[in-house]
Amino acid sequence: MKLSAELESRGFIHQFSAPTLAEIIDGEKRTIYHGIDPTADSAHAGNFVNWMLLRHLAIAGHKIVFLVGGGTGMIGDPKPDSERQLKTVAAIEHNVEKLKAQAQAFFQEVAGEVSFVNNHEWLGSLKLVDFLRDIGKHFTVNDLIKKDAIATRLQSDTGLSYTEFAYPLLQSFDYLQLYKNENCTVQIGGSDQWGNMVAGVDLIRRKEQAEVYAITIPLIVDKATGKKFGKSEGNAIWIDAQKTSPYQFYQFWLNVSDENVIDYLKLFTFLSLAEISTLENDFQVNPGNRSAQKQLAFEVTKIVHGEKNASLSLEVSEILFGGQSIEDISVKGKEILIKNAPTQKTSIGATIVDVVVAAELASSKREARTFIESGAISLNGEKVIDVERVLVEEEFKTGISLLRRGKKQLCVLELG
């Protein structure tokens, strides 16, 4: 299967500025760029789909230029609903370095050529009059006000400052610079960037009499909720392990809805389409075993945080939700479990009734006895039916034990 056909089958392609996608990416090897502004000190899952497309393109032999917008980040792309708050220069520089480090780690295993640039290198030294004469004359206000975000803002009470109004000119200038300096002929980005990207295509055609291209990725939407898949909707899953731990990251993907899981396997993993088709068939026959979600969670966590963290996240998840014995837990797995699950200190000889109440699995001793007598309480997978039972040392072979009420409510008991 040609690369263009595979990328379309995976759901990466929304728009492209050529009669066919094949003529952009199936022929000569090109230099392709993608830019991200440093609005935060970490990329999130909404950005990540762009990075996945870049890796597919790099693996296929295209050269990748990854741009971090230290210059455009000082302005900010127009939001459709409000003016962006300008960040300090120090904050922008901090975010640039963090994002660059994340991208370098993500692309370090790619055999193809990947380079990193900061557009402050050229935007920071622009002279206003020269820029307006050489670049601004190629843009009409009529065209600019038709762009979605700008048009929306102009119709609102918020209004639009000239600062943000000029953003498309800066992004177009980026493309021009990369065309002249790197022979870059393709830009990729989210579908909300289409207007800015096409403006860059037009600028290069006018100034250089050259044909370059733009490709956008569709907006990723949670089919179950209808919400945008990204940080602006308040559901950010960060790439930075300090902001979203590898275990929390794993759990996010494990808990995606049935409506989304196959789409996400195509976009966010490097499993072949044939492998995904097999998973989809199994999922349709046995949706309850959530094999597709488990594979998705492991694969994405492995890509972002490495196989060791993916395996540890799988281990802890299987203990909490998959029926694996807590007695088999590794030292590192134990640390992750204690950090991420409800935990209660206890001691040998404590009565099970008192422990259930202390673990907040019952609101009173009376309720705890009722739960025990009805068979709702289990310890390390074994039902507890004796209300007089006390904790014994054999139940804490690794220093911890797992107390449950029913299937979903649990608490890790830790000696101490």
Summarize the structure in words.
By secondary structure, the chain is α/β, with parallel strands linked by helices. It has three domains: 3-233, 3-Layer(aba) Sandwich (Rossmann fold); 246-338, Tyrosyl-Transfer RNA Synthetase (Orthogonal Bundle); 342-415, Structural Genomics Hypothetical 15.5 Kd Protein In mrcA-pckA Intergenic Region, Chain A, CATH 3.10.290.10. Helix content is 46%, strand content 13%. It has a six-stranded mixed sheet with strand order 1-6-5-2-3-4, sandwiched between helices. Strands 7-11-10-8-9 form a five-stranded mixed sheet, sandwiched between helices. Strand 2 (31-36), helix 3 and strand 3 (63-68) form a beta-alpha-beta unit. Helix 13 packs parallel to helix 15 and helix 15 (291-305) runs antiparallel to helix 16. The longest helix is centred in the first third of the chain and has 19 residues, at 89-107.
Give the CATH H-level superfamily of the largest domain.
HUPs
What is the residue-averaged pLDDT? 92
The first-level CATH class name of the largest domain: Alpha Beta
CATH topology name of the largest domain, in short, is Rossmann fold
Largest sheet: 6 strands, mixed
Total individual domains: 3
Helix content percent band: 40-55%
**Using DSSP, what is the number of strands?**
11
Low-confidence blocks of residues? none
Describe the global form. elongated
How far apart the termini lie comes to 59 Å
